[in-house]
Structure formats: C-alpha cells, structure tokens
Amino acid sequence: MMRYFAAAILAATVGVVAIVAPAQAQNQRFQIASGDLGQALDAYVHQSGRQVIYRVDDVRGVHSPGVQGEMSADDALAALLSGTGFSSRSDSSGAVAIFRNDTTPLSEIVVTATAGGEGIERQKASFATSTLSSADIHQLAALNTAGLLQGIPGVTVASTGGEQGNNLFVRGFPSSGDAPYVTFQLAGSAVYDPPTVAWFGNADVIRIDEMIDHVETVRGGPAQVLSNGQVGLTVNILPKTGTDVFHGVGEIGITDYGKRRFDGQVSGPIGDNTFFSVGGFYQNGDNVRRLHFASEVGGQLSANILRKFDRGSVLIWGRILQENNTWNLPIPIVVDNAAVQEFPGFDIHTGAIGSPEERELTLRSGDAFRFDQGRGTNIKNGGFNFHYELNDSLSVQEKASYLEGAVFTNALFPNTPVSSSSFSIAHGGTFGSLTNVATGAALPASTWVMQVGAWIADKDVKNVNNDLSFTVHTGDNKLTLGYYFAAFSSRDYWNLGNNLLLQSVNNGPILDLTLADGTKVTGADHFMSGSSFLRGENYQGTDDAGFVSDEWQATTQLRVDAGVRLQYHDIEGSFRNLSSNAAGDTVFANTYTAQSAKTHKIAATAGADYELTSELGLWTATAAAIFSRSSTPCKAA
pLDDT-derived band of residue 19, with 50, 70 and 90 as boundaries? Predict the structure, then answer.
C-alpha cells in the first residue's frame, strides 16, 4: 500500500505542473437590488452561499448600488461594495469579513468552539483562542503534530519522542503524561472521543502535510459544552479545500541521515460550485537518531470534495494514514553540576538505543517484536461537515466522522547504564564473562551495559461521532440546540518486560553475561527474562449529550454567551487475568474480569466580551465542567 501513496501524490502534483494558467472562476447569476447595504449583503449570502461577517451598526444607513448579471462571487461582492466606503477580506476558513476602508480589517474568524459552527470574529470571542496559518506551520517547522502546539499560550509540549508518543500539558490541568486534556479535531470532528488512553493520544493518528489550511486552538470556553466536551485544549485542524482556481504544490525533503520525503497537494473546481482537494506525503529512511535501517516509512493520503449551495455547503473528506516511526526514548547522559554531557561512547545528538540486530526478534512468549515498525499507525478516517440555512432565521449543521484502524508500539525501554561488574553483583554473583552475541568477541568487566526491555503494545481502535445542531437567529440573539453522540472501542494487547542486555554505546550490540559461578544471566535466546506484564483487554463505550448555547450581542460593544450540556457516559468491557509459569514469567490465565462504568454529568459555561476599540477588548469566562475521563473501565463486575 505504501508505494501507492508516493505514486498518487506525485501524479496529482505533476498534473498541476501541466496547468500553466488558472481556470476561469465559476460565474453565478446575481440579482440584488440597490438599497441598504446590510440587506444587500444578506441577499448576497443567500445567492452566493458564502459566509459573510459584518457589524450591523457599521453598515446601517449605507447605500449599496446592488448588482445584476452573471459574474464570479468575488466580482459581485466588489460591485455591491463599490462606492460604499467598505472593503472585504477573506479569511483562511473561506469566510468573508466586511470592514470600513479607514479602519483595520476585522480579526481572524474562528469556527472552533462556536455554537452552530458559524464562526466569530476572534476579537469578539470570550475565550482563549490561537490560530496557525499554513505559513505559520511552515515557519514553525514542527517535528511532529504535537510540536505544532509549542507556541500556543498555556500549553507545554514534550515532543522529542518522534511522530508519536509525545506529552501535552495544559495549564491548570495537572497530568503525569500523554495528553488527557487535549482533543484533536479534523474539520470540526473529534478524531477519537476519549482524549487519551494508554499508548494512544489523538495526535498519534494525525500528520502534518500540505493538506492543512490552518489550525485553530481553543482553551476551555464553550468547547466544554460543544463537541466531545473537552475542558482543556481543543485543536481543530482544518483542511485545504478547492476554489475556482486550480492550484498545486510539491515539496521534496532530503536529510543527511538518509530520509527522503515527498509532499504534494492539488485542488480546483470539478463543476459548478463543486471543488476538490487531494494531497499528502510519503517518506522513507532512517531516524535522526541513527538506527541504520529504514525506520521511518509510510505516508498519508487525504482528499475532500466541497459543494456549495445557495444557502449552505457540504464538505466530504477522507484520509488514509499508514506509517512506521521510531519512538525516541531516553538516552544515557552525564550530568555534572547541572551541565549535561555526553555519556562515553554515546553521541548526544544522533546516538540511538537499538540497531538492525533488534529489528526483528521472537520473544519467549512467541510474539514477534518488530522494532522496525516502532510506534506506528494504520488507520482510515473520514467524515462530512454540512451547513444549511433553512430560512432567514433557522439553520442546521451536522458534522460526523469515523475512524478505524490500529496503533502499535514496538520499543526498547532502557534502564540506567552500569558496569558489567556492578551488574553481575546486582544479580547475585561476580563477573564471569561477557560476550558480543553477533561477533562472539569477549568484553571486559569494565564494559558499561544497560538492561533494555522489548515492549509491545498494540491497539485496534474504532470511533464514530455525530454532532447535530439547529441555530435560531432572532435579532441580536443566536440560540443553538444540539445533540452529540459518540461510540468508541479499543482492543488492546500488551507484552512488557522481555529484557535484553545491551552495551551502552551507539547502537549497542546484544550481550550474553555469565557469572563467575557459571550462572547464565542471559538465556540461550539471549533474553534475561520473558514477559513481566501482559494486558489483553477489550472495551467499548458511548457518549450521549444534549447541549444548549446562547449568544447575545447586547450592545455594539458587549457580547454575552452561555451554554449548558448534559452528558451520559457508558462503557463496558473485560480484561484477561494473569498467572505465572515455572520460569516466573507472566502468562495469561483462561479467565476474564468484566468491567463497566456509567456516569452522567452537567457542564455549564458563561462568558462576556467587551470591545474597547476596534483592536482592543476585554473578556471573561467561567465554567463548571465535565472533566475528561480515562476510557479505562473503572468498576469490576
């Protein structure tokens, strides 16, 4: 499957190179009479299907010349604004802001954590929000998806683990690791509704590529009432969609450690008011911490189709991610008076624990340990986003997504290096002999060694969610009522322990140790031990939530919002019990323990924003919320 990723992306980009001129913009027929500018803009919204944001008080009493005839949406809007003293600016989300020519353009339009998903000017939002444009993402040059958030206020990122397995911490929500208070969304739909489970976070199944238009982040605020009810950080990745003009981009990345990467994206029209976008990446090569084999292999292919109606739009999207990645775990270092120095024989910048010798191993349990697969992903994900104005005061929006696939971990977990003689004493004897398994060479008692566990943690996951809401506009008030449903499952298999003895140098070889009395510390299979912990678990759950959100533009300067959510959480499953064999290794018993948990909670939020000037404002917010829960079942039955 991997080879087809590169071919598909390359074919799409080559197709763009052959296009030397932009396609003609799609024309529409407009019939908007001259008169009040506000009424003219409302008519334009209905006829063009575009989202337009403007201040009612600003355009009140302003005369528009109207527009008649067949032309592009941009030309029609320019004609409507001709001679009015107003101009327009398109946001990266596709929405259009109207502003006076003698003032600064309106701030960015944010659609994340907004009732009905209709968007709000960032300055008017009564919650903490940040936006990363495509240009910002390129400039940031993040190592992975988690690294995108390193510039977001209130978020701490530990993103040195590679593409997956990174830790995200949100200010005010203590956690020991993973990302329990972070939800990632694609086109407004949560990727996997439980924000984190063991060995799997939302960021693990998303990759950065040229299909990302921009990223919106929201801390707290209305997000804990909407979507999956995240109280911490909601990260919404919005894809590039097609326009009236064909567009394409291709990139090639080459490293000095043997990794090659190709990115491509192409978009354009495929009919009247219908547009496409497709792109992704493929990579192959070693990791920056050299393992001396292709440990970073795979890619992502994404596509979407956007259809615009007179009073709405629908976006249908899908993607495939198949990739193997190295999980960079701690390496030995020396700390001298707070100064970090290299451990002898271990390069602090490029040194790695592991080598081609551990690429494929058979554990004592019979399991295949595939270090070359590392911490990888094989998933399929798709969904849709639908918005339609039923009449001038009532609109409906529905978002849904489905994810299915596997996330897997094959990693070497190191312990602190010690000398072979000290290691021998710790195992009840004195040093006898130490041998390089691959070469047969004998090593002295002064050789530094480390115990390393070959761990496996595989998860098969599924997730489906649906977010349906209706919004009623009455004057300066917007009331949204909605229902959110999610169903998710995970089938887990863990095999931890499986200790090897490695030399504490770059790509240290596997060693065999024998004590002076002839005791073999490592067995004939070169392992020190078998499994120390196993986990066989299967669970599934659902979330059902109803929510109400209200926004009121009390004055031209004061905006107030409030919301409430009632959620029911139901989960059940079972795990396989454990026993021990004669060698002292952990094995599965033939019995199971059932688990279940049922809870329901209420979340509520309220906020206000006051604009002091067109560029300066104050906001405040409060909440009593559902705190994110781990999806591990918590009650034995």
Answer: very low
Q: How many CB atoms lie within 10 A of CB 388?
A: 16
Place of tokens 């494929």: 360
Q: What angle do CA 628, 633, 637 make, to 5 degrees?
A: 145
pLDDT value of residue 91: 58
pLDDT at site 280: 97
User: Cα(109)–Cα(120) distance, rounded to whole angstroms?
Assistant: 5
Q: Is the CB of residue 307 less than 8 Å from the CB of residue 355?
A: no
pLDDT at 8: 46
* Beta carbons within 10 angstroms of residue 521's beta carbon: 23
d(CA 216, CA 132): 7
CA torsion, points 131, 137, 140, 141, in degrees to nearest 10? Answer: 160
Q: Which of the two residues, 161 and 481, has the higher pLDDT score?
A: 481
SS3 of 107, please? coil
pLDDT at 28: 86
Determine the Cα–Cα distance for residues 76 and 89; give it in Å rounded to an integer: 14
Compute CA distances 459 → 179, 376, 404, 436, whole Å. 17, 11, 11, 35
Task: For residue 138, report the phi and psi dihedrals to the nearest 5 degrees.
Answer: -65, -40
CA distance 366 to 294: 25
Query: How is domain 33-106 classified at the architecture level of CATH?
Result: 3-Layer(bab) Sandwich (3.55)
> pLDDT at residue 488 above 60?
yes
Predicted TM-score of the model (pTM): 0.81
The amino acid occupying position 26 is Q
What is the rounded distance in angstroms from the CA atom of residue 395 to the CA atom of residue 537? 43
Nearest to 249 by CA among 236, 240, 258, 237: 240
DSSP states of 157-220: EE-TT-SS--EEEETTB--SSS-TTEEEEETTEESSSSSEETTEEGGGG----TTEEEEEEEES
Q: Which two tokens stand for residue 108?
A: 């960015």
Residue type (1 letter), 142: A
Smallest CA-to-CA distance from 587 within 529, 510, 506 is with: 529
DSSP 447: -
Calpha distance 235→181 (Å, rounded)? 11
